[in-house]
Structure formats: structure tokens, C-alpha cells
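Need the bound structure for zinc ion, inputs here:
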Amino acid sequence: MIITGQYLIPRPGEIIADGAVCIDGDRIAAVGKRDDIIKQFPNKSVLERRGCLITPALVNAHCHLELEFCEDKVQYRGNFVEWLQEVRNLKHDMMVMPGYFPKRSVRAVLSSGTTTLCDHYTMEMDFEAIREAGLRYYGFRELFEFNNHHPNLKRLRDATVCSYAVHSPYTTSAEIAQAALAIARERGVPISMHLSEMQQELEFIRSSNDDIERLLRRAGAWEDEWRGTGMTPVQYFDSLDLLAPDVFCVHLNYITSEDIEILAARGITHVYCPRSHAYFMHPDHPLAKMRDAGIHSCLGTDSYGSNISLGILEEAKLAWVEFPQITPEEILMMMTEYPLRPLRLDGELGKLEKGYLADIAVWEDCEGESFEEHMRWLVRQPTAGMVMSNGRIVYEG
Ligand SMILES: [Zn+2]
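Answer from helper R.:
Posting the output first, comments after.
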């Protein structure tokens, strides 16, 4: 199949007027000018999408599909730990069971032009149905057990089909986190972690915090021996050798200049969730300082517990308002190349190029001529006109 468009963005910084992409099976066979591509592949069917912009499909680097039930049901009242407890109680009340298929969320993710998703989960969902719907799903099983210092490796190995999420420094024990990273490395997949998300976490890791102690006691995970480390969460996890290029650090809302030096030296990938950040009313994010230090930030939506939609471009739009120094090329890389690197997919996805997987988004009624004009237009589009994953159409608006 050949898809033609008024404009095509094959990679950050480039734009082709009257462009086309030729798809063969699940891969891209060629990208170029419409007339050349049609001449080159005379036997291929042609899908003319006049007035459209064609781009690589996008990546959402942090989500919790499982929390679909939170939509309009939880409220933030200024205390993060209480919010967390409310989400847990609600999950219990709603009787969300294993085998769950968050159908509405999956469709919301796909409709926003996203085909690759990094997702934290706490129970087996219907992963087959999620993949069948067209999502390249990277599930990170959340680990807790703050007071468990002797992980059962067999149980840990069997706990996930993909990888692990260290829920946080205040809910996951050092030994569980280290064992999870070691297993993920054997499998060649990254791990993900919430890190330095909120003030109470900082206090708890340094010395103590009553809210977190109460949360752990209620979960039966309180550790009597815990005395605090005197360190920041970043320094604490670094002292455990948990920070590396195969790690997604989600949030990093509260960090020091020393933390930034550590994070840059370890080569972690940061995930910024602008709308979730705004929802919790955190102070301004240190993303600009991290960027200056060479740390790559990608974008995530987080969940319906702290966001009103799962559209990644809405995150890009807000990130760009908050950090206007981000270049149009970088904005695209935050949703393509940067998150794909830890997933080891950066040579396979994120560009429209011969040999790459055919993950493509088509956006209707585009405006502009240059790459930058199109990027500024694109971040205002909540939904795509058509989305393709592995050469298969998985969403049509
Ligand atoms: Zn999260």
C-alpha cells in the first residue's frame, strides 16, 4: 500500500511536500515524493490522503492503563499520599480484576497517534487484547514490598511477561529493586520507576515522614528498621546502582543540582508528564536544567487518576508552553527517538525510513509549510485521522 499526503515528516527537522510512504507487509519499503513512489511501485494500491500530514507514530512513555476506573472519581486535596491511598481504595471497591481489558484507554491512546506505550501495571490485564488492538505494549509490573529484603527470584521472574516498575523509593525495598533490574537486564529490557515525585518522598528518604509511614503500615509493608538515609531519592537509588541508561526515571519533580549531575552521568531517560505535574500543583519542573545537562526527557500522560485524557500531543503542547526553548526537532524526539532508545527500538521505529516498521500517523487538514510550522500545528491536534501499527490500520477517525 502507498499512502500519500500533502506533507510528510520522515524524521525530526525534515519535511517533504507531496510526500508518500510505501508499505510492504509490516515494514516501510520507500519514502519520498508522491509521483516518484507511485512510479516506483506501480502495482501497489494508493490511499490518497489529500490535505494530510503524515508522521511517524508516537510513543507515550508513561501511563497506567489499569487506572481507567479513576476517571472523574478521584480528587486531589493537596496531599499526594492520601491521593495514592484513595486510588488504592477505589481499585479495591471497583473490584478491578486480573484479565481486565481497558478498552476505552487503549482506543484513546491509539487515537492520539500513539502506537508504542510504556505502562505501569499491578495485575495481569488482557495483554493479548491490548496487543491485538494494535498497541506495542511495554508492561512494567509495579513492585512494592518495602519490608521484603529477601526477594523470591522465581516468583519475581514469573511476575511479568515484559519488565518491572520499581514503584518508588518509599514503597519498594532496595533488594527487590536491584533484583528486578538484574532480571530485566537478562531479558534486554529497561525498567521504569517513579522517582523524586513529591515532597513527602524527599522527607521520608532523608529521615522520616508520617504520611508515608501510615501508608506502609496500612499496606502491611512498614519496615521497623527504616531510619532514613540522609540522602535525596536520586542519591539513594544511585547508591544502590539503580540508575543507568536502561532506566526510565518518571517525574523527577524535586531534584538538586547534584542530582542532575548524577542523572546525567548515569545516562538515564527522564519521563515528563506535564498535565499530571500541573494536576498535583508541583512547583516548576527542573526540565530546563536537566536539558542543559544533556539529559533526555520524553513525554508521558500518566493516568486517568491525574489526567483528563491519554493524548500525548496534549502533553507536548503544554511542555512547549512551559519550555519554549525546546526546539521543534526535540519536541518530536521526546515522543519518538528518546523513549525508543531505552526500549532498543530506535533503529526500528520513530522515523519514516526504508526498512523501519510501518508505524504511521496521518493528521487531517494540516496547516503550514516548514517543519516547525507543522510541529506547532501538530501539537494542537488531539486525534489522528488514521493510525497504522506494524503495517496494519489500527485506528480511523
Ligand atoms: Zn505514574
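Comments: The chain has two domains: 2-57+351-396, 58-340. Residues 62, 64, 120, 194, 250, 302 surround zinc ion (CB under 6 Å).
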